[in-house]
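Researcher: Next entry in the queue.
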Amino acid sequence: MIGVAVIIVYCLVPFYWMVVSAFRRPDDQFSNLPIPWPISIENFVAVFKPDVGFGRSLLNSLIVAGTATILTLIIGTFAAYALARLDFRFKNVVLAVIIATSMFPGISLIVPLLKAFTDWGNLGPVGAFLGSIWGESWINTYQAMILPSLSFALPLAVFNLTAFFRQLPFDLEQAAMIDGCTPGQAFRKIIIPLAAPGVFTTAIITFIAAWNEFIIALSMVNEKEMQTATVAISKFTGAYGFDQPFGTQMAAGVLVTVPLVVAVLIFQRRIIAGLTTGGVK
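Model: Structure for this entry, 281 residues:
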């Protein structure tokens, strides 16, 4: 019990102090009182000033995280189903390679991605051909943030969903096909509904990872209108341009974090069920 209490305190104290600092008045930011008094919402008002553009940053984060999550689920579901159900050579090697790619440090991929996205012509004739289709530069675009996020989200999604599909009995698909379903209909009408807990868990984990992503968004975007919320918070400036606006940053941090915490608390049973069901079989 003591260990659990220590872990809870260790995890929650930074979040508690962020919330407390967000509700302090700007003049009280360096106060050590555990409860802010008087309580102030000046920092939250400052976050949404028109010149800050934080509302647009939240929208950008929602677009990037939402699109990355949808694409990850679509691609990951088909890939995981093929690895779990189809019989072909080296499929365990393929799964091992996919999982191994999740071990790559993100910073090691930034430079080659930045070079490719700055000008596809840097990759030679093949890059020039791709550039003629997709546009010469992807800098300051949504796809420059979404595509790299997929490379980090897909391995976890494929691993999690493969474990989930493997624990579903083959008899279900065979019974559906005996009743007249095609393999595609059996997958869509039988397997996908049964795999909903695993798909939902993967969606929550992927969305949180994409929502909190920072390095890629910082490297691929230099226009203020395209910044995600995490990047926008790091670039907040004080009233005089050179002081550190702790209160405003704490308020923005609360606005970015609280929706995720609430979502996890609401769906915690589904998340735990999805992780444990796919992991113990």
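Model: The CA atoms of residues 13 and 19 lie 10 Å apart.
Researcher: Noted, moving on.
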